[in-house]
Design a protein that fits this description.
The chain is an all-alpha fold. The chain has one domain. Helix content is about 60%, strand content about 0%. The two termini are about 15 Å apart.
Length: about 190
């Protein structure tokens, strides 16, 4: 299997957000946009796939599957891939009270300037890819925190200080990574 097929399989296997009302085919099409964006952002940041060429300098220091599953796990915990969040229709109390956008809950930072942040909301392939790129850049910085728990904390707070939430996400990440690797080998998830 290829990365896209495995990520799509993992996305469609998740229980939809409890308030999502989507026909199965519409949900699968939306998940395909997300899977495509995760794969492209991963290949760009790791200089692999279509982006494997001379002069490309990887922005992510780990393996491609570590980045892809990092993005998958981040969005799973941050938004559960909820349709209304993907559509940029967060309720006033959601998305960090309007400070975060996209399935990856990206904030304006030095890594993600406001002009980019303003364009990452919505279900279009362009907005979804831009949000995956922003999350990949943020995860690449957080990856340097020294441990998975600290990396997830770094993504959530910009501080490399382990938290209970970081520990929980790290455990889920490892389970997701194991499942991904089994699926890539053609084994049951």
């Amino acid at each position: 299997m290829q990365m896209f097929e495995v990520i799509l399989s993992m996305l469609t296997a998740l229980q939809p957000f409890h308030k999502d009302v989507e026909e199965p085919e519409a949900r699968k099409a939306r998940m395909a946009v997300i899977a495509t964006s995760i794969v492209q952002a991963t290949e760009e940041a790791t200089c692999t796939g279509a982006f494997e060429k001379d002069g490309c300098k990887p922005k992510f220091k780990g393996k491609p599957d570590e980045l892809a599953i990092g993005l998958f796990t981040i969005a799973k915990f941050e938004t559960r891939f909820a349709k209304h969040v993907h559509e940029d229709r967060c309720k006033p109390w959601e998305c960090d009270a309007g400070q975060a956008k996209s399935l990856f809950q990206v904030h304006v930072t030095k890594t993600v300037p406001r002009d980019v942040w303003l364009r990452i909301g919505g279900t279009s392939p362009e907005a979804t890819l831009l949000s995956a790129r922003a999350a990949a850049a943020m995860w690449s910085k957080a990856w340097q925190c020294g441990s998975l728990a600290r990396a997830f904390a770094g993504y959530m707070t910009s501080y490399c200080q382990a938290t209970g939430a970081g520990e929980t996400r790290a455990k889920d990440y490892l389970a997701n990574l194991g499942r991904y690797r089994r699926l890539m080998k053609g084994q049951q998830g």
